[in-house]
Amino acid sequence: MSLYPPVKVGLLGLGTVGGGVTRVLARNVKEISRRAGREIVVTHAAARNLDTTTANTAGIKLTGEALEVVNDPDVSIIVELMGGYEPARGLVLRALANGKHVVTANKALIAKHGNEIFAAARTAGMMVGFEAAVAGGIPIIKAIREGLAGNHLEWVAGIINGTANFILTEMRDKGRDFPDVLAEAQALGYAEADPTFDIEGIDAAHKLTILASIAFGIPLQFDKVYVEGISRITRDDVAYAEQLGYRIKHLGMAHRSEQGAQLRVHPTLIPQRQLLANVNGVMNAVLVKGDAVGQSLFYGAGAGAEPTASAVIADIIDMVRTLTADPENWVPHLAFQPDSLSDLPVLPMDQVETAYYLRLQAQDRPGVLADVTRIFGDRGISIEAILQKEPPPGAHDVPIILLTHRVRERRMNEAIAAIEALDSIHGPVTRIRLEHLDSD
CA 241 to CA 14: how far, in whole Å? Predict the structure, then answer.
């Protein structure tokens, strides 16, 4: 038996994740108490619609007003599961000012307002846990922040949005078009009615912002992430990539060098033999490269009630363990001591260097390819592979697929503009970046 009384937890939100938290806590109460050293009890919860919740609400004081939970003196830990920027930000700041620790699964909140929230937590002598904000049930925050703390981390690459990964997997496996698979993802509940955050990369950019900060010791800088979605990817691009030995994944990539940090989310060709290329469906995975450990892959369910609840409860247990510890000895929110964060600049996308996949629609006549290769040659861009397809019966245009070696994006932008200006090239050039991720 613990010498300490139970720790009382208040939930803000009783939706999918809130329901999962109540169920997992109830089911694993003995195991969790053994780990934490004290019993953890959800005693208060707020939700907009208490009639539809699937949560186990037995013994919980329910309210429609989140502020009632935040201001209740009996509650020691606030778990914010509402999502969005406001009122979540105001409630979290109030909870910290009220002397309560906070756990959140809200990646948008941390990516956009985390610097302010963590500063408020330090002032109040409180902790903020956000393991569930990135990659659901995969304990990637703790792994990078603590497990890999002895490494100089060089880069992080992740499939960190299950909806986009499901769509690209279906397009590859079944040769389907993007709009059809998106409609199925919505019917299955993998995509929202408004899927913009998932398919246009905003959700992944929130998560990448957090990963880059804890990996490199830089402030959270969501506004500097380059973001590109998957809505322009065609089944032809997926098939051509496969023929060339690659797969298209929607990748979040953080990389650092002496020049600066790269923070980017975009469709990416990666070699089929790469571990990340074989992460399919709605699953998530994060590949981390450290100077000492080499490459480490973290794989698992990136969303869902109980996988996300697993991460939320792990944070609660961490906080319960520290309730009797000196705040000076807590693990820093962003892995590095607050006064040691780096001012390493984030590079604009035109300064980033990658390889490229390009698809052109060209007139089926002699000399077109020579014009294109001359444009590349004039700009010092080397071609690795060319794939020229036969035109469909009766068509006058032929698709040409090119893979290039690594080149700075600014130079590639100039080359693409010159190619699109040719009379023999019809329509815009499709450009997908290519990363080998040290696999060759």
Answer: 43
